[in-house]
Write a structure and sequence with these properties.
Helices cover 45% and strands 12% of the residues. It is an alpha+beta fold and 363 residues long.
Length: 363
């Protein structure tokens, strides 16, 4: 426990005497620590927010505070069914240190468990429940939220970047990727037609989580039931289909995101059914007809986006994603394209599953 961490923690309205501060988790984006206290006082999560990823941390923390306060007013156990932001002693929901780094604290929720991977239909169902419940609790949220990551899931904006990447050919790879580029171009019209539904308001803007992996769902350790969604740094306003599509891209893939053996990659219809079942068990009541109609397509939309982004980074010379070997982004592109093709091949079945489950929860 360094003096620096002690000093930073002391800037917040913590209860009890601190007994220990130590790292928690792998910390891919933020530095995360757990603050243990003596006696019956609660423990806390202390984070250094990554200002390179989140250039406006105060706006991000304001998003989190507004969303969690809205949820707290609607649930039976406000301290366990959402995060609790702990204010700094100056009243702000963050502290900025002498080096310009931003820190935030939330109350640690005890007696919980989480999973790193949704490796069964049962867990896929629970992941759907978690995000569906999060969105349902916020379906009547009307306050504006800041855009904490510019252009997130905005395919018209991504296509502008893409066109520049192909034109500039910074790494001299365009000629060798003619087939892969054709994958993008042959789907441009359909993808932009979906994006237009967002731009013209056919698909409404709602509160979205934007990082829907299973590790961001917290479970009660005793009941094993979904407790709440966590890691709310990316909460923004968007179509809820972004959350569904991102989850489907991750949950339904039978192979790795960067699988070199494409025979291992496909979309599992069983995992698709399980996730949509869990999601609609919570979300069917508030979704509008256009959201229902495009629910199955959301997985195709977000998986296409990832194909485009991996290939674009490869054409740019691997400037965004970390790579383990020179062709890594191209391997990622091909693996995600195989998943995309599997989704496209099973699209009619996916739509039938959605229709069946909507009828189940709206009958």
């Amino acid at each position: 426990m360094t003096e620096n961490y002690l000093d930073i923690a002391s800037r917040f309205e913590l209860q009890g005497e601190i007994s220990e501060i130590k790292p928690l988790g792998e910390g891919f984006i933020n530095d995360t620590l757990i603050v243990r206290t003596k006696g019956d006082a609660p423990d806390y999560i202390l984070q250094r927010k990554n200002k390179a990823v989140f250039p406006d941390v105060p706006a991000m923390m304001n998003n989190i505070s507004m969303v969690t306060n809205h949820i707290k007013a609607k649930v039976a156990d406000p301290m366990r069914e959402t995060l609790t932001v702990v204010p700094a002693k100056d009243g702000k929901n963050y502290y900025r240190d002498a080096d310009g780094e931003f820190w935030a604290v939330c109350t640690f929720i005890p007696d919980t468990l989480s999973y790193t991977q949704a490796d069964s239909p049962e867990l896929a169902y629970q992941g759907g429940v978690g995000i569906g419940r999060f969105q349902s609790l916020l379906s009547d949220f009307k306050q504006p939220l800041a855009e904490v990551i510019k252009g997130f899931h905005n395919l018209p904006w991504r296509f502008k970047q893409w066109d520049e990447a192909v034109k500039n050919d910074a790494a001299g790879r365009v000629a060798a990727c003619a087939e892969e580029i054709s994958w993008i171009e042959s789907r441009r019209e359909r993808i932009l037609a979906f994006a237009q539904l967002v731009e013209d308001g056919t698909l409404p803007m709602r509160v979205t989580h934007n990082d829907t992996k299973i590790s961001n769902i917290l479970f009660d350790a005793d009941t094993r039931e979904v407790l709440c969604a966590i890691d709310l740094d990316t909460v923004m306003s968007a179509t809820v289909l972004n959350d569904v599509g991102d989850a489907l891209r991750c949950y339904t893939n039978t192979g790795a995101e960067d699988a070199p053996d494409l025979d291992t990659v496909s979309m599992s219809l069983d995992m698709f059914r399980a996730y949509i079942d869990g999601y609609l068990s919570e979300a069917a009541s508030f979704l509008c007809p256009a959201e229902i109609e495009n629910l199955a397509f959301s997985g195709i939309y977000i998986t296409f986006e990832q194909v485009l982004r991996f290939l674009m980074d490869y054409l740019n010379g691997d400037t965004y994603y970390k790579i383990k070997y020179p062709e890594h982004n191209l391997v990622r592109t091909r693996a995600q394209f195989k998943l995309l093709c599997s989704m496209e091949e099973q699209y009619s079945e996916m739509c039938k599953v959605v229709d069946e489950l909507v009828a189940k929860y709206r009958s």
